[in-house]
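Sequence and structure are no longer studied apart. As an example, we show below a sequence and the tokens encoding its fold:
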Amino acid sequence: MAHHSHHPSTSCWDHNVDERIGLIADGLSDNDDIRKKLPGLRTLLREYLSPDVSVESTDFHKRLLRVFRESEYDFAYQQCLDRLTSDERDRIEKFVADDKPLEDVSDGFDMCVSLGVREHLQHLTGVPFLQVSSTGVQALGFPPTNGTNGTNGVHLNGHSPTQVEVAGLSGSSSLDWLKHKDGLFHAFAHKLKDMLLDHEDEHKVIVYKDAPFQNWGLVVDYTPQYTCIPSSVAGVQRIVKYARDHDMSVRCAGFRHSWAPIFGRQGQITISLLSLAEATKIPNFTALSKVLPEWLLHKNELQTLEVVPGTPRVKGNVLVRIGASTTNEQLRRWCVKNNKYSYPLNVIMVEMTIGGTNAPICHGAGRRHQTLSDLVRKVEYVDCNGRLQTVDDPRLLRAAAGCFGLMGVVTHLTLEFEPMSYALMKPEKIPVLRAIPPPDDMADDEIPPALRLQNWTPEERAADIKRFEEVATNGFYTEWFWFPYSDLCWVNCWDTTADPAGTEDYPSNVQTFFMFISQFTMNVLQNATVLNELIKTLHLDEAAVTLISRAAMFALPAWDEPVKTYLPDALHFQRGIQNVRVLDVEVEIPLQPSETDPTKPDYAVVRRAWWDAILSCYAHSSKGCPQRMPLEMRIMGGSDIVMAPQKGNTLGTCAIEVLTLEAARDMWVPYAEEVIGKWLSYRDRQGKKINTRPHWAKQWDGINVDGRPWVEKMKAEDYRLEKEEFKGLLAEIGKKHGWSLRDLKKRFSNDFFDAFYFDNITL
């Protein structure tokens, strides 16, 4: 790489990524103390900058991790390592310490459930996430568990997993569950026998008492009285009937990957639709599979995946019935294995349930695509009386298919799938100015010098604008990433083909493992306290963020030729991203009509929103760098779902978000409020405020806009008419099915939904 000269200023406003890395290397040269605490970092950065040395992405990550592994003053590497399974630890150590090739280390690797899910299962069961080995059970980050007997079984607190009663596990929660043995049913305490007795094994329910709940983003926490894990529709019905008979409310949770207050209530019932079969699968076999009953560890009725009869809205499509506990990973594998049909859109993450992505109206990318809820053709749910009901009327589905769980416990969804197609992926790394050129009214001196291009002609600028707008308008999948203070954008836009010839799996095993390595690196960097000392020593606030962004961009692919892969694989192109805990705010901005042709979208507001976020990030570079993860934007369609933030966006939607790492939590909200304030300020050509609304699953609670809580604006302005239409459609469904809105408030609501939808209904 070309070496860059360095200027006296240390601001990222003036210096590009390589120049800032050079400043870090210079600072390490001038300070023996900090250099000793980060052994090998100066050499790595110098070689990275040298035109005579080639440092590939895998080598950069390996050597960067080795810096923290060998540091005698920072323990982030070991602490992050201790959170992994023994298999994961061994592979990382072979890669970092033993210098084994990535191909060898990744052989046989399969991405395990995320760190957050492991923590959740530990909180729920009181059992640390354990790895069974020939030497017994090894708790992650803890010494070997007492009372193990090697590979012959696991004994926790004196109880064998083969015993009928499994109770009193370590931790704050106790496990109450029912098992049938020789015609005798055993149930533990809490008067749950009437709910759980007299049914076959496949309809049993596990119940935990007083198990603390936290969402993945750590912004929602409460303690339900009961956390129930059903394995069948009948099990769900028994839970709801118990709630009805004991005047309790019921809410569901899966992988808990949301930042919004859409979960349960303190002291009530939470149904966990988390797939324990997925959470305890080989090769990351955990002690939970020894503690939990075997019937809960297999795919069950709530993980159904089947093509069903019916008439799709588009000829050639099919209807697929999916259990609410089915994960995106199970769905992806099913589609690829059958190679006949696929969902046309989805979220990136595979560690989510279909129920969890549908309830808050999640989305994918591409202007031709609406939300996931718009694909729903039938909803099967357990109502407030414990009866199984269905909704398949297209008009009523506009409420039922995106109802946040307020209608009842959704057990199955029938979605319309398209014939399998194949993505022609060709990700690119493009200079920031050229990927999405700044708005026409943004002066050159507003652009950070670090991002400016020499000799960028007006003709080239016009061509770049045209290219961006054509891709945004017509691309099957359209997405842009910018990591803080990067010189380049990662552009992931592609189209599909019906021709399967030359299709390959993506990501490969090697690529998946490297994604895991990059996420591990991210966690080490955000937890390394010695980097704070580096920042203070060099007076370079963005030093740590520079390394994080460089490592992240280095890990993302860019190809000269397209790679053809199965559509579901391309939609879920990143694996394991849930291993890095982040905070995230996202808004949906309606695309505005072109001044010359109102039937086509204009992208001036989109370009403004993108660059306002970039400039806000630079403005805070000397204030602790509150944004430490990417700015991300997807162009998508509108929606017919009543409560979708994309509803009414006939020309499409700009879904734009900013993220940060957990380490920046303390400074995040004021920064997020500043960025959101800009995004909500845009007006159309008539001077009217554009109806920009937040993504329901992202962070909006606890954030102020225009000097008041954002949720007040959502209720009084953004969804003033929609929430009444939504309640009207729910009431119409209830009239058919024998329940009222008052029943919904009592049985399936929570504190937020009480105030948002049901404030005029008394119990």
Notes: DSSP finds 27 helices and 31 strands in the chain. Residues 90 and 105 are 9 Å apart (CA to CA). The longest helix spans residues 509-527.
